[in-house]
Design goal:
Order of helices and strands: EHEHHEEEEEHEHEEEEHH
Number of strands: 12
Strand content: 25-35%
Distance between the termini: 42 Å
Helix content: 25-40%
Radius of gyration: 17 Å
Length: 272
């Protein structure tokens, strides 16, 4: 599988962000990517007035996704990108869409919301209670995760238990003390402890760190970006995954299963 991870700085204008996604998609298609992972929530980015995402969120049949579907038409490249879609309670869902050849092949709504480091994502975003999502890309199973999800190893393990050999991780990792270190450690840990590939796309710009990277099943960074917009490339060979799992059989050696039961949450993400 040929993987591309892309990053750019999202603006408050969805049309500008659509154009950036279309450009990166076209570049990935030209480069023969089987999988392109773009950042989280790039429909619109509001650094200060974050409640405005409620006003501009679009349904999955809205213009942003419709135009992105058109951008993938005629191509075998699977594009995973994050938007915000309206929910019934007045907040929005932070949603990943997987698009290929003009079709919406999967949707994943973010489970773990970023109520940490002084942020309160749940003030405007509704957490999902849906099961994890695994898709097929060029004969390889790919699990979908979003940003803060990476801090919860049980979700990655559930995806790998469902057959994932690659984890696609769109993100908008917020700057802060030691945050770049957290990002690299968490992405690498999820790859190493599950002997899988992690394709992590981080939005860049004034609020977020960028630093998109692809990590292999033995924890080696195969490709990465710094702070500038662009694409990073890596080839995730099934043989390499199988070899890693023979060398480091942590999945076979483990003694505990992961409970897939979703813990109910109360208002604004508080555990019940």
């Amino acid at each position: 599988m040929r993987i591309a991870v892309g990053q750019f700085a999202a603006s408050p204008d969805w049309k500008d962000n659509l154009a950036a996604c279309q450009e990166l998609t076209a570049e990935a298609v030209r480069g023969g990517a089987d999988l392109l992972v773009l950042p989280e929530g790039v429909l619109a980015r509001f650094t200060e007035d974050r409640h405005r995402i409620r006003e501009v969120a679009q349904p999955l049949d809205g213009p942003f996704v419709t135009e992105m579907l058109a951008a993938t038409a005629g191509s075998a490249t699977t594009v995973v990108v994050g938007i915000h879609e309206p929910s019934e309670d007045g907040r929005v869902f932070n949603t990943l869409v997987a698009l290929r050849d003009g079709e919406l092949i999967a949707r994943y709504r973010k489970i773990h919301l970023y109520d940490a480091f002084g942020d309160l994502e749940s003030a405007n975003v509704r957490p999902a209670d849906e099961p994890p999502v695994v898709i097929d890309v060029a004969g390889t199973k790919v699990g979908l995760m979003t940003c803060y999800d990476v801090r919860f190893p049980e979700l990655a393990r559930l995806l790998v238990d469902a057959g994932a050999e690659v984890l696609a991780l769109p993100a908008a990792w917020v700057r802060g003390p030691a945050k770049e270190r957290h990002w690299e450690v968490m992405v690498t840990a999820r790859a190493l402890e599950n002997t899988c590939w992690v394709a992590a796309s981080g939005e860049c710009g004034p609020r977020n760190i960028g630093n998109s990277l692809v990590v292999d099943p033995l924890g080696t960074v195969r490709s990465r970006l710094a702070a500038a917009p662009g694409l990073a490339w890596a080839d995730a060979a099934p043989d390499a995954t199988a070899a890693a799992r023979r060398t480091l059989p942590v999945l076979a050696n483990r003694r505990f299963a992961v409970d897939p039961t979703v813990i109910p949450l109360g208002p604004l993400g508080a555990p019940q």
